[in-house]
């Protein structure tokens, strides 16, 4: 245990955790949910929930992780107080590991599509028309190969470990992501039609605030902060004792919500610019287009109509999406790999190879039964499992773990924490409010 790896700096941790948080959920999910849920009304609900509900749950995971310095299963067992809670800890831990792996199995498929469209912009520049057609046509072989390539990239980073893999690559890729995002926003906002998109995005339609909107915003906040499945717990376990967890957690929440908001300034105006070029941007039921059609049909209309520069814009856009996916997927893979490497005699490399292969098989099964499994796995993991697991993490911290131990852990790196507003509010908050609110919203969504 003495040689357990750590992030080499605060910044390294924030980059890695923000890298996990910022993904397709921010750049694709958040803007499109906003557009179909009353514009700025959704943004408002999202920000409130991100800070009042997701941030406390994130803190629960970071604190458990740093205290236990172990994978999610061992960590939850470690803070249990008797045989029943030990069993519960094992069950929840393993459930989290399975959910993280299943999320990766569908995420790798979508990320693979980003890679194919990225490559297509290059093949088109080179004039390779046939290759471009193959890359953009929905087919089993294309899906399988692109998913496999993406999984290999993810595995290559995870095999290198915490500082040399996760931290190094997150620190390299996150600034690139920000630059690409900003460049694309400036470009799109200069196009005709962008102002209409901005209006749709930023003007609140208060009449749309409903229980359904709150549930969607909560699900989005949990998915976006990678909560419930042990990702943030394992990243917390690589943090040193000198760091203030409440501050780091707040930084990650702020960056994640900020990037989601900024991504909205790109995606929604881009949809309305595409409309100028003749793209059909509404679904049959009159909603703004949101699913894969948005990314793979509407936006390409925009890129195609821009002439030569459109290829570069497409390249930048799909590079942005690929980077965002990769820094998230490594955090998903780290959950099962850390468990296997810590609990068996396998080396990190062997654990990565084994688990990466198993997830590759999951993804292949999804691809073979795409119509029945793809949407099902997404709902099972993100709509149902993530919020429920988030509740259990809060219950562990609020009810099972002794308050004094909790205080001791959180005092590391923040000696005067007892005097802060955070400590006055947070323990009661994770104990009562978070579970009740999350469960209420959850039941709403199931009904
Ligand atoms: N937060 C990622 C996104 O917004 O795309 C998705 C995610 C990452 C979910 C890691 C779960 C996870 F464990």
TrEMBL record:
Among the Pfam families in the record, one is SNF
- Membrane topology qualifier: Multi-pass membrane protein
* Native organism taxonomy: Bacteria, Pseudomonadati, Pseudomonadota, Gammaproteobacteria, Cellvibrionales
Which residue spans traverse the membrane? Answer: 12-31, 43-64, 92-115, 144-166, 173-190, 210-236, 248-272, 309-330, 351-370, 382-401, 421-443
Q: Among its keywords, does the record have Cytoplasm?
A: no
Keyword list, A-Z:
Membrane, Transmembrane, Transmembrane helix, Transport
Task: Tell me the superkingdom of the source.
Answer: Bacteria
Question: What name has this protein been given in UniProt?
Answer: Sodium-dependent transporter
| Keyword Ligase set for record | no
* A cellular component annotation (GO) from this entry: membrane
Which compartment or compartments is the protein found in?
Membrane
């Amino acid at each position: 245990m003495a040689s357990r790896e750590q992030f080499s700096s605060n910044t390294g941790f924030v980059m890695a955790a923000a890298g996990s948080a910022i993904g397709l959920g921010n750049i694709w999910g958040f803007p499109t949910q906003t557009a179909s849920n009353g514009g700025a009304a959704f943004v408002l609900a999202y920000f409130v929930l991100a800070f009042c509900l997701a941030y406390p749950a994130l803190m629960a995971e970071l604190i458990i992780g740093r205290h236990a310095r172990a994978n999610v299963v061992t960590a939850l067992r470690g803070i249990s107080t008797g045989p029943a809670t030990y069993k519960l800890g094992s069950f929840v831990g393993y459930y989290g590991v399975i959910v993280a792996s299943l999320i990766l199995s569908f995420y790798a498929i979508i990320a693979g599509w980003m890679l194919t469209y990225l490559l297509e912009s290059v093949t088109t520049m080179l004039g390779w028309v046939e290759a471009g057609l193959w890359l953009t046509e929905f087919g089993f072989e294309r899906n399988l190969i692109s998913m496999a390539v993406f999984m290999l990239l993810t595995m290559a980073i995870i095999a290198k470990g915490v500082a040399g893999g996760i931290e190094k690559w997150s620190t390299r890729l996150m600034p690139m992501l920000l630059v690409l995002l900003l460049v694309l926003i400036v470009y799109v906002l200069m196009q005709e039609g962008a102002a209409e998109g901005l209006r749709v995005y930023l003007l609140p339609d208060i009449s749309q605030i409903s229980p359904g909107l709150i549930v969607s915003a909560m699900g989005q906040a949990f998915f976006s902060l990678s909560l419930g499945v042990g990702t943030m717990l394992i990243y917390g376990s690589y943090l040193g004792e000198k760091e203030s967890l409440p501050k780091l957690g707040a930084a990650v929440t702020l960056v994640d919500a900020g990037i989601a908001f900024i991504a909205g300034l790109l995606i929604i105006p881009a949809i309305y610019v595409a409309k100028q070029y003749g793209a059909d941007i509404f679904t049959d039921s009159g909603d703004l287009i949101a699913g894969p059609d948005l990314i793979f049909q509407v936006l390409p209309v925009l890129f195609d109509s821009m002439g030569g520069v459109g290829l570069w814009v497409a390249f930048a856009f799909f590079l942005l999406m690929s980077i965002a996916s990769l820094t998230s997927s490594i955090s998903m893979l780290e959950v099962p790999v850390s468990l296997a490497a810590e609990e068996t005699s396998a080396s990190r490399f062997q654990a990565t190879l084994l688990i990466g292969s198993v997830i590759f098989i999951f993804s292949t099964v999804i691809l073979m039964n795409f119509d029945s499994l793809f949407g099902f796995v997404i709902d099972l993991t993100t709509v149902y499992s993530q919020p429920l697991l988030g509740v259990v993490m809060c219950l562990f911290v609020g009810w099972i773990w002794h308050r004094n131990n909790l205080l001791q852990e959180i005092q590391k790196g923040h000696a005067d924490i007892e005097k802060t507003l955070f400590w006055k509010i947070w323990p009661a908050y994770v104990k009562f409010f978070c579970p009740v609110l999350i469960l209420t919203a959850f039941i709403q969504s199931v009904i």
